[in-house]
Structure formats: C-alpha cells, structure tokens
Amino acid sequence: GQQVMQIPQYQHVQEGEDFTTYCNSSTTLSNIQWYKQRPGGHPVFLIQLVKSGEVKKQKRLTFQFGEAKKNSSLHITATQTTDVGTYFCAGEGNTPLVFGKGTRLSVIA
Amino acid sequence: NAGVTQTPKFQVLKTGQSMTLQCAQDMNHEYMSWYRQDPGMGLRLIHYSVGAGITDQGEVPNGYNVSRSTTEDFPLRLLSAAPSQTSVYFCASSLAGGSSYNEQFFGPGTRLTVL
C-alpha cells in the first residue's frame, strides 16, 4: 500500500536557526497536506499542496511539492520557540490520507 | 461552532471490556475518520466515512467497529479491549475526501489505557 516516509524523526535547533523536514511517498499523490501538533495537543492543519512543483509560503514557513508529486518539504526560517512541536505530512493518492511519522522539532532558546 | 468534539478525554479499561468513543462535528462535514496515535508511529487510519450510511476500513481496522447513522456523529466501538489498543485516538472531519480541498479538523483526542 501507499507509504509516506518523513525525515528526520527528530531535530533540535538553536533559536534563530533554520529547519527543514522532508516527506517522500512511494506513489504519486493527488495532494499533500502538512499539520502541526503541539505537545499534548491535536494536529492542526497548516496547508494543502495540489499542483506539481507548487511552492507556498506562510510567513516564515515555506512548503514545496515536488515536480513528480511524490515528495514535499517544509522549511522554517529563523525558528522561534513557538515553532516547537511535531510536523506531519499527509499524502492522498489512490488511498485515503496517509500520514508520515512526523518530525519532532525542539528549539533551544 | 464547537468543531469536532470527542468524549471521553481519558478512559481506562480492563482487557476484554468494550466501550464506545464518541465523536461529533457541527460543521456539516461529509468526511469523518478515526486515527490512533502511538509514540513514533504517526497517525494511523482506523476507519473512515464519506457520508452518512457509508463506512470503510483504514490501515488498522481490526478490533474496532464504526457506524455513521447521521452526518454529525461517528462513534468508534472497541469490541473487546486489548493492551495493544492503548493509544491516543483522534477523530477528524473534512468537507470531502479526494483531491478537492479537504483540510482535516481534528478533535482533542481520547487517551485510552487498557490494563
């Protein structure tokens, strides 16, 4: 079945450093979504990408969808302590939404 | 709008007991789903529904039943609880599945422990 791999599993950064998490699917996706989950909380939707090669920005966050629609990345510029949490990608193809295992980001002030 | 609500927030069961986790949404969403979250495993789909009266299995359906008699409610039943079902359970809803815009709205979760 469809698999979505996400790396790295953990990332520790100093406040102000950049952060990137990568997502790869075993199959071509119709769309990919990104979610953030704060410790003890529930996943919260960040964005959905649909088009091949699409790039979207939300303030310090930049999201990309690969040309082949099989990979995606989330880049955070100049991390802040409020960015702490786990970031999940979720891909939809010929199956319902499949989540990656997430990247847990910790930010050292 | 209350969004997606789940009850209970916490539950402790003994092996073999049955129970129902409740999920309701007031956004008139057609698509609802149940996930379980285990440490290091991400979110795994248990069951989902594309509308009232229609349900289907996800990645990890064994030991769970669902029904969707109304658009608003999507309860998850544990038939005979096992320690392997200890997890955090999230219910989610969205306008639709497929390639249309389908932001998932998650409930606050139910933390279940099976002894």
List the uncertain runs of chain A: none
Strand content of chain B: over 45%
Classify the helix fraction of chain A into a percent range: under 10%
Count every beta strand of chain B, where a strand is a DSSP E run of 2 or more residues.
11
Which structural category fits the helices and strands of chain B? mainly beta
Query: Could you tell me how far the N terminus lies from the C terminus of chain B, measured between alpha carbons in angstroms?
Result: 36 Å
Unreliable stretches of chain B, pLDDT < 50, 5 or more residues? none
In angstroms, what is the radius of gyration of chain B?
Answer: 13 Å
Largest sheet of chain A: 6 strands, mixed
| Strand elements of chain A, count | 11
Shape of chain A: globular
Please give the radius of gyration of chain A in angstroms. Answer: 13 Å
Largest sheet of chain B: 7 strands, mixed
Provide a descriptive summary of the structure in words.
- The complex is a heterodimer of chains A (about 110) and B (about 120).
- With about 110 residues, chain A is mostly beta strands.
- Chain A has strands at about 5, 10-15, 20-25, 30-35, 45-50, 55-60, 60-65, 70-75, 85-90, 100, 105-109.
- Chain A is built from no helices and eleven strands.
- Chain A is globular, with a radius of gyration of 13 Å.
- Chain B is about 0% helix and about 50% strand.
- Chain B has no helices and eleven strands.
- Chain B has strands at about 5, 10-15, 20-25, 30-40, 40-50, 55, 65, 75-80, 85-95, 105, 110-115.
- In chain B, strands 2, 4, 5, 6, 9, 10 and 11 form a seven-stranded mixed β-sheet that branches.
- In chain B, strand 4 and strand 5 form a beta hairpin.
- In chain B, about 35% of the residues are buried.
- The chains are: A mainly beta (about 110), B mainly beta (about 120).
- The interface between A and B is medium-sized, with 24 and 25 residues.
